[in-house]
Structures are given as C-alpha cells and as structure tokens.
Amino acid sequence: MIVRLAIPTAFCALALSPAFAQTAETPKPAPAPAAKPAEKPPETPPDLKAYRDVLKETDPEKKIAGLEKWKKDFPESQMRSSADNAILSTLVTKLPAQQTRIRSFASATFKTAADKDKPSTALGIANELLDANLLLKDAEFYARKSVDSMRLSTYLQDQLASYEKRKQKAPSPEELQKRFLTSRAARIATLGRIEVKLGHTAKGKKLLEESYAANADNTAVQSELGVLAVKAGNDQKALEYLIPAKLSGRASKDANGAFETLYKKQHNGSADGLETMLDAEYNKRFPNPVKVEPYQPTEKRSDRVVLAEVFTGSGCPPCAGADLAFDAAMQRYGRKDFAVLMYHQHIPRPDPMTMPESQDRAKAYKVNGVPTYVIDGKSTVGGGPREMAKSTYDRFYKDVEADLEKPAEAHITVGASLKGKTVSVSAMVRGVESKAKDVKVFVALVEKELRFNGENGIRFHPMVVRSIKSFGLSGESYRQVFDLDEVSKTIKDHLDDYEAKGHRGESFKFIEKKYQIQPNDLAVVVFVQEDESKHVLQAAYVDLSTEAPHPTLEANNVR
Amino acid sequence: MRLTLLAALTTLVLSAAPPDPVAWKVDSAPKGVKPGAAFSVKLSAKIQDGWHIYGLKAVPDGPVPTRVWVAEGQPAKLAGAVQATEPQTMQDSSFNMEVQLYEGEAGFTLPLRLAATAAPGEQKIVVNASYQSCDNKICLPPKTVKVEVPVTVTK
Predict the structure, then answer these.
(1) Residues 6+ apart with CB under 8 A from A529
(2) Which helix (H) or strand (E) holds A461?
(3) Do the chains contact at B59 and A81, CB–CB below 8 Å?
(4) Low-confidence residues of chain A, pLDDT below 70?
(5) What's residue A405's pLDDT?
(6) Of B49, B94, B136, Cβ closest to residue A8
(7) Positive or negative: CA dihedral A108, A109, A110, A116
(8) Cα separation, B63 vs B53, whole angstroms
(9) Would the CB atoms of B94 and A7 count as touching at under 8 Å?
C-alpha cells in the first residue's frame, strides 16, 4: 500500500499535551475495542513529564545537567535521542565557545547510537552544527556519514524484507526508489549547504542541485540555490528558486536579502512593487481550491447576520485549509450576511498578528488548539492543508446557511466613523430575546487584510482582530472609541514582550511584527452573545473604508 | 424553541466525536505471576485500512510518537524499554524528515515487574496508550486510551 503522509497535525495543540476535539473526517467504526477512552485529563508518561520539566530550565548548564540526570533516571525512555538532541542544541546555541565539549558530546552520541540509528543521528548532529554555523568540518563529517550510509540496493532489500515481515504488499520498485531518492535528498541538502559554508561552492552547488532534482520543495535548498544564482548573476534561475522560497514564508535570511537585491537590480534600484509582484505570483501559484457561487437568499432568509470567529495561526500548517475555507465563505456571502473575526494565536509558532485580547478570547472559548472556528457560538476544531480547504468549508457552510434562516434574537444598529486616527463606534442594541443573565455586547475593530507569509504559506490574512471590547447588556446604547495609535502600541508591546520572553521557553525573533494599522482598511463588528452558552444572538458589520460617509450604517437586520 | 435548539446542538456535538480508527487489545498476558516477579505483556493496535500511527521514537518537531506506559497507581511497573514491532520508515515532506509509522497493525511488548505487595487473585493492570492516527488527508488529535491487562497474581 502506498502511503501519502498527512500534514503534521490537523490541529496545532496549544501545549505539548495531547488535546481532544472533534475532527473533520469520520472514519469507519473500528472493530469493538478492548480499550475505553481515558478520562480527561489524560495522564502523562512519567518520562515525558520529567522531560518537560527539565526543558523549562533556562540556564544552559543547569538544563544540560538536568537532561543528563533525566537520561540516568529514564535509561529506557523512547525519548533518549530527543534528550541528546536537546543537549547538543543547548551546547551549540548557548555555549558555542566550548568547542571541545561540543565535539566530544557529538562524537559520544554518534558512537553510542544503535547501528540502525547511526545515519539519522549523524544527520541530526550535522544539522545542529550547520544551523549554529559551528565546527563545520565536523558537520561535514557527520553529513557525509548520513549520506554514505544510504545505498539503494541495501535500502530496497531492507524495505522488501520489512514489508514481508509485516505481511504487507510492498510498493512497486519505482515507488521504493522514489522514496529512497527523497530520503537521500534531505541528507544531500544538509551536506551541500555545509560545503557551501565551507567555501566549496561548486561541490555544494552540485549536491544541492541533486537534492533539488529529487525534491524541489525543500525551502532550505531553494534558498541556498537562489543565493548562489544571484551571486553568479543568473537572474532567471535565481527567481525560479527564490520566489517559492519567499512564498513559503521560510526563506533563509540570506535568501530574503538576495531576493531584494535581485528585485532592485531589475527595477532601477527600487524595492517598490516587490510585494505586489509576490502577491501576483502567490495568486497565480495558489488559487483557492474552494470554488463558490454567490449566496442567493432563500425565502426563509432571516434578519440574522451570521458570525464566524476563527482562531488561527500563521505558523500552523493545518490552519491553511481553514483560512482558505473562510476566504471562500467570505466570497460566497456578503458582509451583511456573514461577519468574520480572525483571532491569531502563537500556536504552534509565534504569530505576529496575535494580541492579548485575541488570546483572551481564546481562553473564553477554552480553545486548546488551532484552527478552531466558532459559528454563532458553536465551536469546531480542525483543519488541514490547502487541498483540504474544501472539506473544512463543507463542514461549516451548511451551519451558516441554516443560521441565515434563523431569526436574529437581537436588533443591532451601528454607527461608526473614522476621523484621523480615531474610530468611534456607537451601537444600539434592542429587542434582545434571551433569558440569560450574562448577555454581553462586543465591539471588535478589524483590519480587513494583512499581508504576511507565515510558516504555513498563507499570505493574506483577512479580518484580523486588532481590538475587541465587551460590555454587559445594560440599556440600549453602547459606545466605544478606538485610538489607533493606542491599539497599535498595545499590539507592539505584546509582540516585543513575547519575543523577549521567548516562545515556549525558546528564544526566537519575529521576521516582521504586524502592529502597524492601516486606517483605510478597517471595519467594525458588533455582536451580542450569551457569555456562558456562547450563543450569538445577532451580529453586524460596518466597513470603514468605503468611499461613502458612514456616520450611521444600518446592518441588514431591520426587524 | 431555544430548548429544542440546545438539545439539537448537544446531539450534534456528541455525534460529531469520530470513532477511532485504531483498536487496542491485549495479545498475551501471564496466567500466574508471583509478587515481585518479572513478566511481559503484549499489546497490539489494529489500524484501519488507509490510516497509520507513528512509531515510538520521539523526534523534535516531528509527528506525535506512540507511547505505551503503565498507568499511575498500578501494582506493576515497567522493568525495561517497551519493544515494538519494526515500523516503516518514510520521508515526510510536511515534516521534512524521516518518520516511522505503522499501517495495519503495531505490536508492543512491555517488560513489567509485579509489586512485592501485589494482592493475590485476579488483577487488572491498566496500561495507557497515547497515539495520533492519520490518513492521507488528515490527522486526528492525539488520543490516550486505557487498556486493561488481566493478570492472575499467585502466592
């Protein structure tokens, strides 16, 4: 059987602990299991719990000592190689001057690895040293070991024997050979990058080209080959490598620099239009796989504006599918049918569109992973890669269509204006039909589109919540003023602080901090919600960037 | 009206929890074990066609590895490394690394030692198994199940 591997997760967990949620695909029922679901919260294996505690240590020497002790305490743990990796990583990033120690630790790790694990251990060491730009001759030695250990004849023999042992039908020889070449490509890529760093450019380039021929999607290879092509003056080739690297959101620092240099060279020294050019390339290469028709209201169309609240992350691979599904939904429905709020989260990686109130909103919904989306208060978890966008869309659009035919349970009239850098919102909330004692009125300021290539490759981020305030239901009139400089400062302070403290205990740098607000690209969403049940009674959307003056705009909810 | 809606919503949420494509069972457990003695238990995970779970090896930034361990408060504990049947090794472009995975079935052997204080008679030792199952399109969120292993403790 040929396995196409799935994306890392359909769901990026908030913490490293297992998370539970309903999911997209419903597999066929399993045979009657002898197991029953564990009660929540699930137990953590003792070795994993102790390992996580050690990783919280920030002092490098104490962390290494903790990891060594952990190895003694849990000699049989399946995470042993993770501990060795963490020690080497701590050494090369925090104590790079201790080269003798690094060298001897790497050597001991390689020697003590089981024979079958030696190639992957060697590759891990080579990558750590390469990333740290340290002991490159040693890195070359280990990378070479990992490449040389791969022989097609042995690989085929092992694979066939392994399939036979499992009593499974082996894939075709062509498929196995392809798998061999893809595995080898990753190892050659590391060796090639090391050779380039060592100044052996021709040798490195040859290896990188060989890797690229077997797997053209490795961003590190695209970046390195792009930089080399710029240096060699081969502009056409450079663009071929660098555009996909740029659009992946994972181009190396050198590749970003090389791309800008190349663009300026081709545009009279100016970087103007660089992002527009990438926009066009992005749209050409990544059309939304979800095709929709404009919504035609049925006879049953009510006065409700459906509210979608989406928790997402630019570094979350399975959020790509959910993001595109909501892009498609925004094409199908007008904003007087369907209002969307995107709350960005630092899950699983830092997201420069995150801000404290979006995180508070995630806590209010008890979100433990992204993507999570909430239609009028009903929460669903899970997404997938780009090609899964249609299946995510199919999971929620029927809910949207159904809600569009349910009468609103409140009436909202919104007046909103933008003067200079101040957005003033006044909302009238009447006719609330709820027995709940905890009804709240929310006023959200959104930026209609931010451009940022995160690690999941999504370039355009719509309806990013920049600020959201709430009021307990009391009377009919609500007023909120957003000072854009203040809102921007709050986001910037949060991003600066998050960067200073580190992401899950690891230091990092944002590629870009998206705190600047474009006053001409704003909208306001007002909604009324029962706080405990999260049921949304009604929502309204006002676009602040339309040409017409809008001191008072009536949402499509006249009752 | 609202009551009906809420009831419908509750039903929807309950029915949306997917069945598990992985079923765990006990393949072999000893009939008679003396307190303080070593013994081993074999578990297997039956994986539906089209789905896979990952190997035991934890790799930084890699997929969620399968883990099998004795639950808290049991009259036995692990006495060595958990052994697993040989997984497949494949390059995964999403992780940009080699991953280990199982299709069809995965077997795990747990070397255990019974507590010296274990009471004689029929005992059930609870073993936890955590894993993530994926097909070629999607991964379900990681899950932990409890597997009860029947053991007869002799004097």
Answers:
(1) A377, A439, A440, A442, A535, A536, A537
(2) strand A460-472
(3) yes
(4) 1-41, 504-506, 547-559
(5) 97
(6) B94
(7) positive
(8) 9
(9) yes
